[in-house]
Each structure stands twice: as structure tokens, then as C-alpha cells.
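dumping this here before i forget
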Amino acid sequence: MENLYNILGVSPTASGEEIKKAYRSLAMRHHPDRNEHPNSVNRFNAIQAAYDLLSDPAKRAEYNQSINNKIIIDPEEAASALWHTLYQQAASGSAN
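structure:
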């Protein structure tokens, strides 16, 4: 499961308003009615799920606790996934 903060492109210390702003921007960009890319439905659903969890303070606190207790089995794979996500965010940000 991809880190929900990475999906929205925000830090774990982001405010509720920052999360909402990121969600709205990404939802507009990846909504299947506006984006014909074959993966847009999956991406939009991931964005929606991330926002649903992170916008609820109780669910967000529980999620943060689970992240803090996460044991990384394969650090190379985890680092690669993180860099890949960051690269995609930088590439999509420069396209706007």
C-alpha cells in the first residue's frame, strides 16, 4: 500500500486545509471525466481514499500510528518507491 501522504503529495505534518487543497487539485486533474488516461480511474480512487482517511482526524491519527510502527522489510524497495513517487510528483508539477 502506497503512503497516503505521498498519494496527495503532502507531508505528514500538513494541516487539514493543505490536505484539502492538495486533494481538490489532484481530483480535478485525475477525474475520469476530465482525464482520458486509462489509469485515471485507479489514480482518482487512490486520491479519494487517501483524502477520506486523512481528512478524518481520528482515522488520520490511527493511520499515523500504524506508519510509525511499520517495519521496513525491504529498505531498497521502500526507498525506490519513495523516489519514484517524488519524481512523478515533480514531473506532474512541472507540466502545469
